[in-house]
């Protein structure tokens, strides 16, 4: 039996020397798409609007506390002296806060308490993709200077201009036409600024970026300083304040309804100092603690009182009891005269 021998398949021809170049060019677009899909995309971060508003409020409170302490230093000087320099005082305090916070790349006290910091949003547009969305450099020197000029210098100049124009009465019709025109221009500028601030507020509530016009013009955005820090709020102090307020309101409501003599008579049987009260001088009125000018006796116990003290207590409390012996007072008698019956309340 004859065996059939199979021929081996023909060998593939060797590739050309420049074949790898064409394969590289063909696969290069696919490689780029795969590499881009594995990179970290830009993360849309959302900064709490409440935190940003709270930071601004805390900064205002801090400035008010510093102003109060500074005013207390000059409390012994001439009254009203600091009133005429109030814009300069506010500008000085705002400059101090800016100098020791924003100028040295540190957050203001309110911003630090809310775990926030300023970031230059213009640099983030050039950086491209980021990892957490919180990266980015702080404010540049130019941004810091413009922030000081607008927030400190601008507010001071406007406050001083308003006080000067109000003192000179530029808005009166008897003033010169130039003064009235300047006053009208100031009013229009203030109206435009308030309208722009209101528009910026609406945009901020929608996007969560730039609380005021200065931050929007400088593109200084507030972001979280630490991504792992939670906003922990302690309500212990608030709870204590609420309890104390409710307790004080309850006392203010109940104290006018209580009669001191009734309370004393109620607590008299439980008093430990009964011997001293029994030996108390009977020549003074137990209500006003003075010698009676018009002495009356409470019946039947016959303890001495001032007429007006005993009369008003008996009229106010129908079941009035003697402040000395806790006996019910049924009538009153002038010392050495006839009995006068206790008045009945209607």
Low-confidence region ranges: 37-42, 273-279
Shape: elongated
Strand content: 5-15%
Supply the helix-strand structural class.
Answer: alpha+beta
Task: Specify the number of helices.
Answer: 12
Q: Whole-number radius of gyration?
A: 43 Å
Write down how many β-strands occur, each being a DSSP E stretch of 2 or more residues: 6
Averaged pLDDT: 78
Across the major sheet, the strand order is 4-3-5-6
Helix content, binned percent: 40-55%
Question: In whole angstroms, how far apart are the ends?
Answer: 146 Å
How do the SSEs run, as a string of H and E? Answer: HHHHEHHHHEHHHEEHEE
Biggest β-sheet description: 4 strands, antiparallel
Q: What is the element layout, followed by pairings?
A:
Layout lengths: L18 H19 L11 H25 L12 H14 L9 H5 L2 E5 H7 L13 H28 L8 H31 L5 H6 L1 E5 L11 H19 L5 H8 L6 H5 L16 E5 L3 E4 H10 L14 E4 L4 E3 L5
Antiparallel strand pairs: 1-2, 3-4, 3-5, 5-6
Helix pairs in contact: 3-6
Please supply descriptive tags for the structure shown above:
single chain, 346 residues, alpha+beta, four-stranded antiparallel sheet, two-stranded antiparallel ribbon, 12 helices, 51% helix, 8% strand
Structural overview:
The protein starts with 18 loop residues before the first helix and ends in a 5-residue tail after the last strand. Mean pLDDT is 78; it is low at 37-42 and 273-279. It is α+β, with helices and mostly antiparallel strands. A 4-stranded antiparallel sheet has the order 4-3-5-6. Strands 1-2 form a two-stranded antiparallel ribbon. The protein has helices at residues 19-37, 49-73, 86-99, 109-113, 121-127, 141-168, 177-207, 213-218, 236-254, 260-267, 274-278, 307-316, and strands spanning 116-120, 220-224, 295-299, 303-306, 331-334, 339-341. Helices cover 51% and strands 8% of the residues. Helix 3 (86-99) runs antiparallel to helix 6 (141-168). The longest helix has 31 residues, at 177-207. A hairpin with a 3-residue loop joins strand 3 and strand 4 (303-306). The protein contains 12 helices and 6 strands.
